[in-house]
Amino acid sequence: MGYMRQWFKSGTPWIWLNGGAVAFSMIMVVGLIGLIAVRGFGHFWPSDVALINLSNADAEQSTLIGEIVRSETVPAAIARDSGETVPDDMDLVTRHLIKLGNRDQTDRDFAWYLELGMQPWQYPQDIMVVERREWGNFYGRPLALLREGVEVATPESDNFMQELQAAITRSLELHEEIRRLERGTIGRINTSLDDLRLDARRLELDETPADIRVIELDRIAAERASLDEQYAVLRQELDVIYASTRRDTLKMEMADGNAVDISLAAIMRVTEPNAMSVFGKTAQYFERLWEFLTEDPREANTEGGIFPAIFGTVTMVLVMSIIVTPFGILAAIYLREYAKQGTMTRIIRISVYNLAGVPSIVYGVFGLGFFVYYLGGSLDQLFYETALPTPTFGTPGLIWASLTLALLTLPIVIVSTEEGLARIPSTIRQGSLALGATKSETLWKVVVPLATPAMMTGLILAIARAAGEVAPLMLVGVVKLAPALPIDATFPFLHLDRKIMHLGFHIYDVGFQSPNVEAARPLVYATALVLVILIMVLNLAAISIRNRLRERYRSAGE
Amino acid sequence: MTDNTPGTPGHAPAVGNADSSSQAEPSSTVNSIRRGNSLLPDLASRKILRKKRARRDRIAHWGITTAGYGVVVALLTIFVYLFYEVAPILRGAAVDEQHQFALPEQQSETFRLLLDRYEILGIQYTRNAESVFFDTETGEEQLRVAVPLPQGAAVSSFGYAETISNTVVYGLDNGSAVLARHAFDVSFPDSQRVVSPKLDFPLGESAIQIDQQGQALTHITTEVLARGGATTAIAAVTQDNRLLLARMTSRENLLTGAVQVTTDVQTLPAIPGNAQQLMLDKSLRNLFVLDDQGRIHFYDIVNPAQARLVESVDVGRGERVTAVEFLVGSVSIVVGTESGNLSQWFLVRENDNANDFTLTLIREFRNHGAAITAIAPEHTRKGFIVVDAAGQLGVHYGSSSRTLFLDEVSDNSLSHIAISQINGRVLWLDSEQQVSSASMWNEHPQLSWAAMWNKVWYEGREDPEYIWQSSSGSDEFESKFSLVPLTIGTLKAALYAMLFATPLAIAGAIYTAYFMTPKQRGLVKPAIESMGALPTVILGFLAGLWLAPFVENNLPAIFSFFLLMPVVLLVFALIWTNLPAGFRSKIPEGWEAAISVPVILTFGFICVQSSPWVEVWLFDGSMRQWFTDIGINYDQRNALIVGIAMGFAVIPTVFSIAEDAVFTVPRHLTQGSLALGATRWQTVMGVVLPTASPGIFSAVMMGFGRSVGETMIVLMATGNSPVVNFNIFEGMRTLSANIAVELPETAVGSSHFRVLFLAALVLLALTFIVNTLAEIIRQRLRERYSNL
Questions:
Q1: pLDDT at position B18
Q2: How far apart are the first and last CA of chain B?
Q3: Tell me, what's the ipTM?
Q4: Residue in chain B lying closest to A396 (CA)
Q5: Which CATH architecture fits A311-557?
Q6: What is the count of structural domains for chain B?
């Protein structure tokens, strides 16, 4: 006992507990990053598809085809509560979540099955995974490739896979053509029609003289007619292509033996993962990763890529940087170089620093009220009267999101720039002034260039903060699915009034607003991974710039 | 920025040839001597140059100052704007009298005065069974319709259903009644709105016999069943004081369009007094009879054949009641007395018995000081307008107990009051038969300090409560804007987050700053700090989608891990201390944390693996079920999850500041302590912590500030239900998450909108104060260190 008292008195146990706290914190940090990385990167790996024969208590046989998502061991009571029959003598049971796909055929694409009663899993080479535009994956065995209803190849024939891949390539090309027509040409026609509608509305509002109005209206009617005509031609063209995409069909057999016809027009890709080598899978892995980064989302954001979200995030952050940089830097220069260093400046400085700690949602509320409803509403009244009551700027959009985040990150830029300015030795300033340079010359030619890295650091930190911020954006301009990118080929190219998609909001939306959480889950991890990498890279850049900066002034100061 | 190309004349002499120019400037003679071979510009151009430079200097000065002020102003705008949006909450109502005119029909007594929804037409129902529609600006008569009365019958009483139904009933002296309903056709010829009034008769133009004995109806009222088919009820009192209740079901013949009415009349138990007014609620379940002694007799008429008198309540409390009216929804009754008392009553369930209600006094309003003559309920919310015998007009609101306006508007006694359906205009009638039309601004009567921070007794509840329920689909919904559940939720989330984060962060900071080897510190500190930059949406999604189900499935693991981990560490430390010194000396001091990592990992792994077994042995197979069985609510997304996730978000903030505070404790202090023979731990407790404690305190405050305002984690990791408790296994709704959820869907400028702005303002003020205090403490600390 005495020994224990002595030991506690020495303080060693407390040191160990403190050490444990650090260790636990580090485990959490590493574990979190690891969890996101493993789940995020793992999503793209084409995993094997198992064929499982089940026999339940009534000796009924059934077969499943699907991917094993995860497994867990739970007390038997919990399994019984969820309606499973478990023998009374069992305390624990293992169960597996299996992705069955085929959402259009059976309405359960994810289901838990007890290991109890499962026969050993098999991985037959001929199981095929069909990635579809709608309804998610299809798992099954191919039966035949049909062209216009006639069988052209069966899995028994040697060239089945080549035939199938060729047919899919063709249908993908057709799909691309359709997309080009719909997005490009027809989109332009729609824009022109909308412009004409606004022109007509402007004529009504402006009280133009009757003769001019008649001429104008005639012009509008003529243009409209010609656009309608162009549209009709395109429509026909599209119909032809659509008909052509329906040429081929893939006949598949599901796990329960039923045959299903899948039109090739609906197919993105077919693979036979069980037959693939590691190299084949690796190639596939990078192909999928690339698709994820460059394609549009599908199926209520639960499939496809996240390109619009990446693009939206980057655009918003860029517009924000353009706004926040000059103001942040000028304000910092003012506070450090021009303002009289009295109580007032001290108060202002503390207030500015503290604004960095104000909850971001408060900025969102301010942005919605002041920017969107007040400024945006006024802009609409002044310049976009023809479009009213549909708001142009009086609704959440890119510019307001950027402005709100600029306000949010302003303190970060100011603090960082001020630190940089404060670190420049006064000898350098005095030297410049002693040589007869004016204050502004000293500032712009000596002080500011030296402080540039600090400003860069501030800006990068601001960007990192803005890229990860979601709460205010939910109020001022981010949507779950934006119909168009904020930058495109139609005038004025950068559309400040458009709503954008955002990586952070995408995570929230897909993870929490999606009807099919299981299907969305891997996508959320992958999106989170992209966001984490983006922000970590930005932060590391800021830290390394700051460190290099310290080194530079250490030598300059000596 | 300014140009700094080397070729510009301003640059080269100023910096490059600085010595020659500074010599040259004082004397022009030196300058003139050198002119021949000097590279300098001549005097004139240098003068211009100097001016140019001075001008640039000034421009830079003003430009930067302006930008500096601009930024300060922009940041100040946040405060100002939020205040500006919140301020209208505090305003009362404003009534602005605009027109006055003579009542169109003055010969016959006015029974009821109403206003249409477009505020264009007034309606007057008179004793001689006429309905007169008039312009609300000029009083000009637009239409006059007579209600058809049977031959020889005369009006003996008048009643009306809830205002929104536009229905009135005339009781006649032959025991029959006529129902009338006014309506408006709106058309837009030439884009101009034209409102044309009409009067129709929902039960047909012929009178309906209520009293089979043919006695005059002295009091009457009607109501149309709100839900489930066209049932109309009429309650009436006859000359010989019998109380009758008639229910009419009307069926329209699809072919002929003729209305066929079936009437079912019941005689109710006798009224213990002389009836003064009858009131039917719109569920047709309750009938209230006011008598001349200030009592309300409450009849349960769910089943008319077995109707019973439930109770008689003295609502006048010794005074005669002069006006009584339902609030919208016909749940609350507002009672006005001869001395100007105003009180609100509704039926409250007694003793948890489903069918046992008593009429209860809920709240009182400001006294008018003169007999209340008429009460008009507001539409779509629980407010009402009152006029009295002294010519005063009062605007009151139920749930917030506010009196928004009370002022004399006329020298004469007022007898009738009407309010439009958008609560924007009122009409009143004085004893001189003059009608006044006034516009009314009364945007935010629901909000008051008491409504937001005190318990409020809402309709249909058994007790006063704190409730946040901002909107619903129904027009008669009573908004419940108590900020208490949200504030409690915010504090609850912050509390659990701080409970998790503070010990870890501070203990970690002490160890990292004081015990850890510098090399490890260089790795650990940035690693933990960079976690602060991790978007909270990621923490929130992991908490909601990964941690919450994991914790739910492994509850025993979580508890055993957090409770036993310190013990396991101590045991391990004891074993380690007793290892042979030769082995221990291979690993120097400062490696305790690194050695702990495998211990923690192993223990965590054991906890998770043994979790199902523990559940089977101790908790009957499911710990979650066990919690439910012992009466603890368990939500999957609860305060425990938020505590861990938000704690994780707060750790970097607290750790970073606390670590700085500990690390910058001057070395000579600790070295002195160690030199005097104190152990490392004694030095920490006796010297380092007391010196650094303000810094650590400020770190905790900063962490608290951050966790109060955090939005995404609480939004994703809780169920967002506004509950008022501190149960760790239930969720909460915080101020910030509430804003994120509700603000995008509320109408701009509505009370709801403004109360959300108020929530934002509260958050802003709270975090600003906390952060400022923390910052000041930190600056003090820095000064102290520099003095030591």
A1: 39
A2: 44
A3: 0.89
A4: B744
A5: Orthogonal Bundle (1.10)
A6: 4
